[in-house]
């Protein structure tokens, strides 16, 4: 069997936020076609680690390579391969679900049909597509945001607390779509307090502790 391609390689990285070490000599890696779970309490460095992988966070020392690109150079070079979903849904409240998905698809130059396919996988179909996003519950908004992110079918998808606000059905949709993403040869990294929800489908697990990623 051919060795799997390494997607992310982080070695001895320190990130300071306001003088505080959000990451401290942190090591972390991700390979293609795997689901990686990151657990940890608030302030342990989960979000900073994901932003580092996404190329939207600088670092003080150490080495970061994403898809072989040295992130001390142009971080923009890897962003077309990487998707990131943070705590904010970044949707337009005065547009319907359908209009939001079409707008996002046009901005990302992906087929509308693909966006609606993923929306359906997250239980968004029928009349719900024509509801204004501003009238949706927090969990429904999260489903729209996740559907849009997965529809990019990027090589690496980073999800920061994706279970937040989702109901039981929404969490099951997330797990099913993550598994299918892995089957397509793509990688999903999930930072979550709900460790037990993703543990059964994760290939590898890390625990964040004082800015370091400890393998479990």
UniProtKB/TrEMBL annotation:
It comes from the Bacteria. CDD domains: ABC_DR_subfamily_A. Gene3D superfamilies: P-loop containing nucleotide triphosphate hydrolases. It holds the Pfam family ABC_tran. Residues 8-216 form the ABC transporter domain. PROSITE patterns: ABC_TRANSPORTER_1, ABC_TRANSPORTER_2. Keywords: ATP-binding, Nucleotide-binding, Transport. GO terms for molecular function: ATP binding; ATP hydrolysis activity. PANTHER family: ABC TRANSPORTER ATP-BINDING PROTEIN ALBC-RELATED (PTHR42939). This is Heme exporter protein A.
